[in-house]
Amino acid sequence: MRLTSFVLANLVLAQVGLAGMCTTAGTAQAPQASTTRPMYKPGARKAAPRESMRKILQTMPPNIPVPIPPDAKFVTGYQSQYAGAKAMTYVRMYTENQPATLIDWYRKNLQAYNWTFKERPGAKPTNLPSLSGTKGTVTCTINFEGPIGRLGKTTALMITFNEAR
């Protein structure tokens, strides 16, 4: 009978989160002082930034700071800005260039346009690399996806850049 009442008491305590305060004899113990420090001070979190502008693009914006392949076709895009930050633009295009050809074309043209850029390998061996660079106060990332489409002849090109200040 004593074991049954002990089990029931622990079930009740577990429901209210106090099971760790009991010993096997059923006597309560004082909780141990925590030796870990919180990762941040209470109240130190900042509010999430507020988007002050968002615009869906219907056509290719004229201010793309990197070269665009001549056969690139605009698919979608948007511009947004958060309080205290530079405006950012995202553009997705399709091109009939093969991914490897397109990546080589960008490597050469970014240097010709005086961009300082880095190439990052894809997350998986089968993923394509991405290029990110800076020129003055503008930063830009170029991502590639392909080949896509029914015939596997199309490469998607995603360009994200911030506005110059």
Written overview of the protein:
Strands 1-2-3-7-6-5-4 form a 7-stranded antiparallel β-sheet, with helices on one face. It is globular, with a radius of gyration of 28 Å. A hairpin with a 5-residue loop joins strand 2 and strand 3. The longest helix is centred in the N-terminal third of the chain and has 14 residues. It has 2 helices and 7 strands, in the order αβββαββββ. It is α+β, with helices and mostly antiparallel strands.
Strand order of the largest sheet: 1-2-3-7-6-5-4
Envelope shape = globular
**Major sheet: size, sense and barrel closure?**
7 strands, antiparallel
Report the C-alpha radius of gyration, rounded: 28 Å
Number of DSSP-assigned strands: 7
Question: What's the structural blueprint in terms of helices and strands?
Answer:
Layout: H1 2-15, E1 51-56, E2 73-82, E3 88-95, H2 99-112, E4 116-120, E5 130-135, E6 138-148, E7 154-162
Summary, kept brief:
With 165 residues, the chain is of the alpha+beta class. The chain has two helices and seven strands.
